[in-house]
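Run log, item B.
One chain of 376 residues. Sequence copied directly from the ordering sheet:
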Amino acid sequence: MSQQIEPVHAPYTGGEPYEFGTHSNDFLLHRENALATETFTVRVPAGRAVPEHVHTDMEQTFVFISGIGAATLRSGGDVREHRCRPGDTLFVPTGWHHTVAAPGLEGCVYVTVNAFVAEAERIGASATEHAEIAAAGFRANTAATAAAVAAEPDAAALLRCAEAAFRLAPGSTRMWPQDFTQFDATLTSAPGSYRVRRLGPFEYVETVTPVPRVLDAALADRLHHAVDGMLPIYVEGSQSPLSVKPPCSSSDLDVLLVVESAADAALAHKALQALENVRGDVPVPLSPGVVHAQWLGLPNFYSALSLDPASPDRRWWTADPAQLRAEAARRQREGLTILHDPAYMREVLDRTLTLLGPALPGVTEWRITPRWRGYV
């Protein structure tokens, strides 16, 4: 090649997207701007997969950024499967058929670095031309590959969706999960078997044993009547029947007072005082908080249930495990859809700041995080 090769810097969320339908490639470094390299971010939506394919002109290295990737590599009768976590690297030699699926609800993201083999004939003179050639081949393999992706996520996958943080990249219309480094427990363990603890600058995983929930219909009634209709009151977290993470011996009872206006925020102080009167009736620590009504649609609030005896939410106290799992998955999928509407999410941020937060000038950088704190 005779073209002038220049250094390139590209934010990982700032690539030029090419949508395949099953997944997308966001090009960071086009092959036409390098001698032997190409780099792009691959985004695989939840429950989908990159259709199986093979390269004869390049070696590939995948660096996983977020979510869980289920990779399958095949060369003749040699089949290798890998569960890829954030930070993992996967090398795919030439001639190996490969696919990456995203069984978790938040999907998976990885960066691909293509290294072209000097003696091989290059397929596609440009990144876009190669993508168009690949798209035609992908269409033939899409159905077979999709069938290999689990239809229903397991408990760990459900919890991953609620625990992943999401960031709206500047100038982008997509939220990106931001879990570049996570504990193995949060990625692959049974949700009821651990808790993530914080002590000063340290964060660590503690092994725990699940215990039965203390919240039943009678206690729910008691909490609801305590606030006497001042504000809607919800349960959230491990004491909720919808939570995929059961309580352990150190679990508290998280209740949420829901506000929508400045008048509601003033009432919240009275409602919190009323809950103090029933604290002695609760056999575990009671942890009340105040949340904005629009927060309840976000994935990390999937377990929030109204304590109003007249609410349809009361049916979840007697539902079977399969029904509870299906409802948790439905709520998290809807929450992820909301996250990908940047205009609506900006509206929620602005309304939250107006109602509950400090008076700030225009905020230009923000993200959705599961490590929320209720306003008390």
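Observations after the first pass:
- The mean pLDDT is 89.
- Helices lie at 127-147, 155-163, 184-188, 217-227, 262-276, 321-339, 342-355.
Flagged for discussion on Thursday.
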